[in-house]
Amino acid sequence: MEVVEGITVPTFTGSGFNELESKVIRKGKCCLCGACIAFCPRIDEVDDVPQLVEYDALCGMCYTHCPRSFLDIPAIEEEVFGQTRTDALIGIHNGIFAARANDSKLREHAQDGGVVTALIKYALDEGVLDAVVATGLSADVPWKPVPVVITDSSDIDKIAGSKYSLSPNIIGVKEAINEGFENIGFVGLPCNIQALRNIQVSTEPYQVGIEKVKLMVGLFCMENFRYDDLLKSFVKKVLKVNLEDVLKFEMRDGSFWVITADTTYSARIKDLDKYAAEGCRHCNDFTAELSDISIGSVGSKRGWSTVIKRSTLGTKIFEGAIKQGYIDISDISGTNLIEGLSKRKKERLV
């Protein structure tokens, strides 16, 4: 980055979409986080891939923001947490717990212990956040994940439950910013969190409104899938399940579960490796290490979620939700399984 006649010029001016396409997309590194699509009006999603749909301004923003172009984790940790990690497998944290939503009805519709849903409900009810971006479902395509912005906890069902295919959720962040929200929460996968942190700590002169994103809730993720590969090719063709009949998907006990009103189908998770998105093989983050608070099922008994407190804000909101009766907590038996999966993901990095 340099200053020319009083104007700050981005470091990668001249490195347009072609740079992103040749160094990230064509090499199979794209995780479809949505960062490039969200903040550049000339890029759109076409068949689950970012594509240039207008002329290239060569501003360098898409290439700079991409978490597969640059990701200075120590710099991000210093900026966000005020320190760098000493725990190589789980990252910076100040406590790991088993937790679940106190509301049994909420748990019925949510995933595992329903902690993500309860935490977001608390933050909206208490005015901590005025909008939350998370993964919802398409109104037109069964079980197709799409970014959703909710502003009232009465809409919490729109984002409850896990969707096991890629969604460019950062597009929802841009939508929330454009709508004028000042305190935005975000729920997403490790790659989504990496992209937002990358933008957040950037010193480049792009003004995208990232300062309005106040809370990042990260979800444990070993790998994800493209919609056509997992749901159409495997669930529909191999398991022969109509997607319209599915009530819920789960990954637990080493298996992928497809639940309908009449039958529950299952497959070993390791048998789904060939359907995993190629970009996931370039990620070494299992527990969303750069989030304010991380949540997943691994490490807790069925019906509970594992919660990793990380930032001061994440801790404050989690403890506020406990105090107000939204969430129950319990001691966790150990972190060996979490550490083991984190180690495995880091070791398999392409």
Describe the protein's topology.
Layout: E1 2-4, E2 7-9, H1 17-25, H2 35-39, E3 43-46, E4 49-52, H3 61-65, H4 73-81, E5 96-101, H5 104-109, H6 115-125, E6 131-137, E7 145-150, H7 170-178, E8 184-188, H8 190-201, E9 213-219, H9 227-236, E10 246-252, E11 255-260, E12 264-268, E13 293-296, E14 305-309, H10 312-323, E15 327-330, H11 336-347
Parallel strand pairs: 6-8, 8-9, 9-13
Antiparallel strand pairs: 1-2, 3-4, 5-14, 5-15, 6-7, 10-11, 11-12, 13-14
**Quick one: biggest sheet?**
8 strands, mixed
Total number of distinct structural domains: 2
Gap between N and C termini, in Å? 30 Å
Order of helices and strands: EEHHEEHHEHHEEHEHEHEEEEEHEH
| CA radius of gyration | 20 Å
State the helix count: 11
Q: Helicity level, as a percent range?
A: 25-40%
Taking pLDDT < 50 over at least 5 consecutive residues as the criterion, the unreliable ranges are 1-7
Could you tell me the strand content as a percent range?
15-25%
User: What shape does the CA trace take?
Assistant: globular
Average pLDDT score = 92
How many beta strands in the DSSP annotation?
15
Strand order of the largest sheet: 7-6-8-9-13-14-5-15
Protein structure class: alpha+beta
